[in-house]
Amino acid sequence: MPSLKEIKTRIASVNSTRKITSAMKMVASSKLHHAQVAIQNMLPYENQLEHILKSFLLSTPDTDTPFEGSHAELKRVALVVFSSNSSLCGGFNNNVIKMMLETIDEYKSQGVDDIIIYPIGRKIEEKVKKLGLPCAGSFMDLVDKPKSAPCADIVRELGNLFLKGEIDKVELIYHHFKSAGSQILTRKTLLPIDLSTETIGENNDRDLSSNVATAKAQEYLRKKHAKERNEEKQDVAINDDFIVEPDLHTVLSSLIPKQLHLMMYTALLDSIASEHAARMVAMQTATDNADELLRDLNLQFNKSRQAAITNELLDIVGGSSNN
Fold first, then answer.
1. Is 263 exposed, middle or buried (CB count within 10 Å of its CB: 0-12, 13-18, 19+)?
2. What is the pLDDT of residues 215-234, one digit of tens each?
């Protein structure tokens, strides 16, 4: 059995660790709030653009664009993978890396060996370089300072490569932020873009009102999402009467790149919010584990101290009896 000094030293060590995990949980909670605000500020633009696209597509269902058609043969694929720059966020990065490797193996089984990675985040970039996979560059700054312009540059580059036939498909791998307690690992096709009206707005199911990840909050979210899905089924299709100049094809050729840019920027914001939510939950779990360990250690310390006091009393009583 460890001595009282050893138990006391371990209690002090666990207390120090608990202070760190508790502070990191509060920092992650604050950063999550800022990430939620960034998503909330982006949503009006996203909703309006989707409204316009849905209206056009419902009025002219046979419209097509160069970004919509699939290439005849799949030879080269680009994967845009989002991770974090730092660790201590549970299985957030490992899950992304695992899905990336599974996606690469899937394409290689189809005979596609020319795969290039666009790593958004230090952890995925380090893994790509370690495995010796083709890398399109370094984009670590985007995670710490998310901006729309760099996302537009990446999309512009990918769009040009797709139109030239140098890339046949582009996929996004990231965590979709649904709530503070639910982040869904997502694999989405960026190019060729899917413009069917059924897919527009399918990921607009985030809860940005709370940073709490309790069971009660999750039950509330499930009921809320079920209610929203029922309301969506009753919605009347949008079919506004637009006058389009110079022509629909030209307007869509301008709107589609904006939609692609929006998809990339949304994935970045979703990934960042998911990272902070995962770190907040991981640090809260670590703090709870430290509290439980402290209770056990304090109980063990009190038992050992009581046993030591009892032995001392017995020695005193025994000495008095002998005298």
1. buried
2. 455 555 556 655 555 555 44
